[in-house]
Design goal:
Layout lengths: L22 H14 L4 H8 L3 H10 L16 H15 L1
C-alpha cells in the first residue's frame, strides 16, 4: 500500500476484499428464500456457510429482500378495551 517513496497506492484497498458479497452469493440467498419463504438469518448463514453480517447486509440492501421479526401482541378482550376507554376519559377530564 505504501511504497518506498511513502506514496499511498489508492488502487488497492488496505482492508481485506469483500468478495463474499458477489452476485452469485446474492443469487444463492434469493433462491434459498424463494424456496423457504420464511427463514431466519441464523439459519440462512448456516445453510449457505456465510457470515451472519453478510446475510443481514444482503437482506437489508438488496431490493426484493427484507428481514422481519415476528412481534407477538397480546389479544385484547372487550373488557380490556372498555377499561382503556374509561382510563382515557378520566385523563382527558
Amino acid at each position: 500500500m505504501i511504497d518506498k517513496l511513502e506514496a499511498i497506492d489508492l488502487e488497492s484497498s488496505p482492508s481485506r476484499p469483500r468478495a463474499i458479497r458477489a452476485t452469485t452469493t446474492i443469487k444463492r440467498l434469493k433462491q434459498k428464500l424463494d424456496r423457504k419463504k420464511k427463514a431466519s438469518s441464523k439459519k440462512l448463514d448456516k445453510e449457505l456457510q456465510l457470515p451472519r453480517t453478510t446475510v443481514r447486509r444482503i437482506l437489508k440492501n438488496d431490493p426484493g429482500c427484507h428481514g422481519y421479526k415476528v412481534i407477538i401482541e397480546p389479544a385484547l378482550t372487550d373488557q380490556h378495551i372498555h377499561q382503556q376507554k374509561r382510563i382515557c376519559k378520566m385523563d382527558s377530564e
